[in-house]
Each structure stands twice: as structure tokens, then as C-alpha cells.
Specification:
The complex is a heterodimer. Chain A has helices at 36-44, 65-69, 87-95, 104-110, 126-138, 156-171, 183-189, 207-213, 229-236, 257-270, 285-293; strands at 3-7, 10-16, 25-29, 72-75, 144-148, 175-180, 192-197, 200-205, 218-223, 241-247, 250-255, 276-281. Chain A is of the alpha/beta class. In chain A, helix 5 (126-138) runs parallel beside helix 6. Chain B has one domain (2-250). The chains are: A alpha/beta, B mainly alpha.
């Protein structure tokens, strides 16, 4: 019996079941409104589920919230600090809530916020706010960290920097649950990804296996002037190649590109064909997502 | 004991942060700390502090100092607390605290103590200015005035949290707080002495909570007997208890 949360007549979360393994980055992806945040908030104890059993670190978030909050670190999607609260003050304040906090100063150093200690929340940039949110999530030295849409609204550069920080958190031995609607983020960071849509789990696997399960072909393409029919026939004869197309000077070889690349190259080499602009194209988690939810992101 | 220790964790840092944040709001600080002494100086310059029959042989400033304490209290209770509390909820600050081991009770105690200290600072400054500029002096006892002040402050703080709990947004909390506070200031004797109001309006003042603050502070300040302030203590205690009970039921952290 999975997790359920009902708002009025809307089943925000309807039978979601999953298990997070120690030390992994577990991704919850789905379009906006899919139920990601509701699911995470049930785990954090912010919302009481209407059905199903939730255990986080062996604890019931509703019944044993005090013990749980001591061991989790949380970054909330839509949550701010008081506008005039300074970075250093926020860290000292949050550290005082926990039994065994980390050194605020050390954490600020590690997250590149040492120079911002006297800057108020209201004057921080988006990237600085997210770094402070990470620092505040870590200051209690938690076993489990929740990041909810951590990189929403960040520019690409800040997003990449934040991903590095998330990997750093995992490398400290923390387990991470993160929600995102950026497929690239899930693909790059997560050891396993759960896709939810309309409050239900539509897939749960490693990013690689999710892509593989799609059964989509991978492609090798290149450009060449001198490809004759004999070359195409030789390519078609390769065992892992499904199909070969030519349009103008562009040749597309459909199949399993991981294993077909070397044979393709040796065929071209054997015929002495000069080629350029060779690339392999693979379906991404984005394609998996589109095929599972049948839609673009709902915004 | 374990519960006590858990409740104490984070209490002092939270208190300090709340007080600092209050002092960083220039408008709130001005109205809490500076406005009542400035008003006192202004009216003192206009009316002086000569003894008058209207005030039972005391000067206008002698009765204004304890009355203006009500002004400080209503500023913090009905304007400062609702705005700050509803804003913290609206921004998700309270939610963020909710996912830490910080206890809601700890937050509430820290918040109340911080506001109490601000109110006390404003009140002490008012008294010091009154004494220095117009020779106003305390006729009652310090412990009694302090006890009465605490009751008055807490009962209006309770109204403030109730307002924050009921208001759907910070904007509504601010509007309702001001709509309640400003007529109260003028009809309770907190700014204009009740003695100068026409009898009809004075009757209206009986239905205004702040009137009881003004009466109690004046009574204790002037050393009136217990029998004359019993009603005020009863009304304010009733407000404190009922507002606290209702707030506990309606308050939302998110």
C-alpha cells in the first residue's frame, strides 16, 4: 500500500511506493504538479499522509518527528529566510537547533560563502541563496538530506556549480533525496530516478536502465563525399546495425552505437572512405520522460 | 527535565536574532522606541505640566507618561507582531524552522521575549524622558508597575498572534492591525486623556481593550488602591487567556 495524499478531490499522491538506499542520490522527477513536493513533504513530516506507511531512517515522520528532524537536513522549494537576517547569523542560529552541529564557519568556507557572512539574505544572489540553503541543510550533520528543486531559477553556470556541491554532499556519505524537473540534472546526479506523474510512479530505475528500457535506437552519423553502395552494404552487414540511411553527404547508422562504433570505423577505414563530423546520438532521460508522461513539462 | 532541555535549545540565539531583526526594521523601531517619547515632548511643550483639577491635582504629563505606555504596547502588539509573524509565515520562514529540531514553543517564547524587551525599552525611555523633561515621578511601586506592564503587554501580544493566525496574508494582518490600533489609541486615553473626551465617547472607550491597559498603568503608576484596578486586571487576564486559547487552535505555521 503506497503513500497517498488527497487535497479535496485531487489525489496529489496516489499509491507512491519506493525505498531509498543508504548513500545514494535518489531523484524524484516529474512535471510540475506531479506530486514530487507533496511526496517529499510527507517524508519530512510537514504533511500528514492520508494513506500508506512512511518510514524515514526507521522513524515515522508524524509520530517521531522530533527524533527524525535531528537527523535530516532540508532545503525547501519555496522558503525564504528573514530578509534582513545575515548569512553568518543564519548559520549560527540553525546550528543552535541541533544536538551535534557542524562548525558554521567551516561549512561556509567549504560552500564558498566565507566572504558573504555579513550579507543579509535579501541581498544574496540566487546562487548564493541556494548555497546557503545547502549549508543550512548540512549544519545539523544529518544522515539524510532533501533537496527540493534546488536549481530552479538558477542560470546554467550556477546550476553546474550547484551540481558539484550536491556530489560533494554525497561524498560526505550523506544519502540524498532530490526532486527536479530538469532531466539533465537527474541523469547527471542520481544513482536512481523515480518518475512520477499525476501522483503515480511511472518508472523507477537507474538513469542508464531507464534509457535502455525505452528501447530507443542509438545512432551514429557522419558526413562523407565518397560513400558508395558497397560501403553502405558493408555497414548494413554489421550485426549490431539495424538500418543505414544516406541523405546527401550525411550517413545515419541506426543501432547500438556503444558496440557498433568500432566496427563502423573499421569498415570506413577498410574502404578508405574519408569522413568528418562523426557523432553518436543517444536518447536521453528527457526522451524517456516524454515517452512516459506523453507530454512536455507542464508549467 | 529532558523536555525542558529540548525547549531551551536554540532559545537564546533565536531571541537575539528576533530582537536584531526587529531593530533592523527602521519603521518598527521608530514607532516602538522613539515615537511615544517624542509625542510626550511635543505635548509637554504645548500643555506643560502644571497641576490641574481635571487630573486630580496632577499635571497633564504626570498622567500622560503611564497612558503612553499603552501606546507602546499597542504598537508592538497589534502592528509589530501581526506583520512580522504573518510575513514570516508568508515567506516560508516558519516552515523552514518547522523542519529543524527547533520546537514551536521555543520559537514562540523567544519571539515573545524579544518583543517584550523592545516594549520595555520603549517604555523605560518614555519614563526617563518624562522624568528628565517634566519632572514626572512614580507614585506607585516598581514591582506593581512591572507586573501590570507584563500583564498588559502579554495580553496585547496574544491579540497580535491571534490576528496573525487569522489573517490570510501579511497584508491583511497589517491592514486589520492598523484599523484596530489607531482608533484604539485615540479612544482609550493612550494619547488623548480620557478626561478631555465628551461623555458619549468615554462610554465607547469601555468597549476598547486598550482602555484597560491605560487605566491599569495609570492606576499602578499613581499608586491607586487594588480595588480601583481589579476590573482592569480581570479584563486583561480574560483577553490574555482567551486569545491564547483561540490562537493555539487557529495558528498556522505554513
Amino acid at each position: 500500500m503506497g503513500l497517498r495524499k488527497v487535497y479535496g478531490l485531487t489525489r496529489a499522491v496516489d499509491g507512491v511506493s519506493f525505498e531509498v538506499r543508504e548513500g545514494e542520490i535518489f531523484g524524484i522527477v516529474g512535471p510540475n504538479g506531479a506530486g514530487k513536493t507533496t511526496t517529499v513533504e510527507c517524508l519530512e513530516g510537514l504533511r500528514a499522509p492520508d494513506g500508506g506507511a512512511v518510514r524515514v531512517l526507521g522513524l515515522d515522520p508524524q509520530e517521531e518527528g522530533d527524533a527524525l528532524r535531528e537527523r535530516i537536513g532540508v532545503q525547501l522549494q519555496e522558503s525564504a529566510l528573514p530578509t534582513r537576517l545575515r548569512v553568518g547569523e543564519a548559520m549560527t542560529l540553525f546550528a543552535s537547533f541541533y544536538a551535534h552541529p557542524l562548525q558554521p564557519r567551516t561549512l561556509l568556507d567549504e560552500l564558498g560563502l566565507a566572504d558573504c557572512a555579513r550579507i543579509a539574505w535579501g541581498n544574496l544572489s540566487g546562487g548564493q541563496r541556494q548555497r546557503l540553503a545547502i549549508a543550512l541543510a548540512l549544519v545539523g550533520d544529518p544522515d539524510l538530506v532533501f533537496f527540493d528543486e534546488l536549481t530552479s531559477g538558477l542560470d546554467p553556470q550556477a546550476r553546474h556549480a550547484t551540481w558539484d556541491l550536491v556530489r560533494g554532499v554525497r561524498d560526505r556519505g550523506k544519502t540524498i533525496v532530490l526532486t527536479t524537473h530538469y532531466m539533465e540534472e537527474a541523469e547527471l546526479l542520481c544513482s536512481r530516478v523515480m518518475v512520477i506523474d499525476h501522483g503515480r510512479v511511472t518508472a523507477l530505475d537507474t538513469p542508464v536502465d531507464l534509457v535502455r528500457s525505452l528501447g530507443a535506437e542509438q545512432r551514429v552519423t557522419f558526413r562523407s563525399e565518397g560513400v558508395g553502395d558497397d560501403v553502405l552494404a558493408a555497414l548494413r552487414a554489421l550485426p549490431m546495425v539495424a538500418r543505414v540511411e544516406r541523405s546527401g553527404d550525411r550517413v545515419i547508422v541506426h543501432g547500438e552505437s556503444d558496440r557498433s562504433l568500432t566496427p563502423i570505423l573499421s569498415v570506413l577505414d577498410g574502404f578508405g572512405v574519408a569522413f568528418h563530423d562523426l557523432r553518436t546520438e543517444q536518447p536521453s532521460l528527457e526522451d524517456v520522460f516524454l515517452s512516459l508522461t506523453g507530454s512536455e513539462m507542464r508549467d | 527535565m529532558a523536555i525542558l532541555a529540548r525547549t531551551r535549545r536554540g532559545l537564546l540565539p533565536m531571541m537575539i536574532v528576533q530582537a536584531k531583526l526587529y531593530l533592523r526594521e527602521p519603521i518598527a523601531t521608530f514607532f516602538t522606541i522613539a515615537f511615544a517619547p517624542l509625542l510626550l515632548v511635543l505635548f509637554g511643550l504645548i500643555f506643560g505640566n502644571e497641576p490641574a483639577d481635571l487630573f486630580g491635582g496632577r499635571g497633564p504629563m504626570d498622567v500622560s507618561v503611564p497612558s503612553y505606555i499603552g501606546f507602546v504596547i499597542v504598537m508592538v502588539g497589534l502592528i509589530g507582531i501581526p506583520i512580522q509573524t504573518a510575513t514570516s509565515r508568508e515567506l516560508g520562514v516558519l516552515r523552514r524552522y518547522r523542519v529543524t529540531p527547533l520546537r514551536p514553543l521555543t520559537y514562540l517564547i523567544a519571539d515573545v521575549v524579544a518583543y517584550f524587551m523592545m516594549t520595555l525599552v520603549g517604555t523605560v525611555l518614555l519614563i526617563v524622558v518624562g522624568a528628565a523633561a517634566f519632572g514626572v515621578r512614580l507614585e506607585g511601586s516598581v514591582p506593581a508597575v512591572l507586573a501590570g506592564f507584563t500583564l498588559c503587554a502579554l495580553s496585547f501580544f496574544a491579540l497580535g498572534y491571534l490576528l496573525a493566525g487569522l489573517a490570510p496574508s501579511a497584508r491583511v494582518a497589517q491592514t486589520v492591525g492598523m484599523v484596530l490600533a489607531y482608533p484604539m489609541m485615540f479612544l482609550s486615553g493612550a494619547s488623548v486623556p480620557l478626561e478631555v473626551l465628551p461623555p458619549g465617547l468615554r462610554h465607547v472607550s469601555d468597549f476598547i481593550p486598550l482602555t484597560y491597559v491605560v487605566r491599569l498603568m495609570r492606576g499602578l503608576w499613581l499608586g491607586d488602591p487594588w480595588t480601583s484596578i481589579r476590573l482592569d486586571v480581570a479584563v486583561l487576564s480574560g483577553i490574555l487567556v482567551s486569545a491564547t486559547v483561540v490562537t493555539a487552535r487557529v495558528f498556522r505555521w505554513q
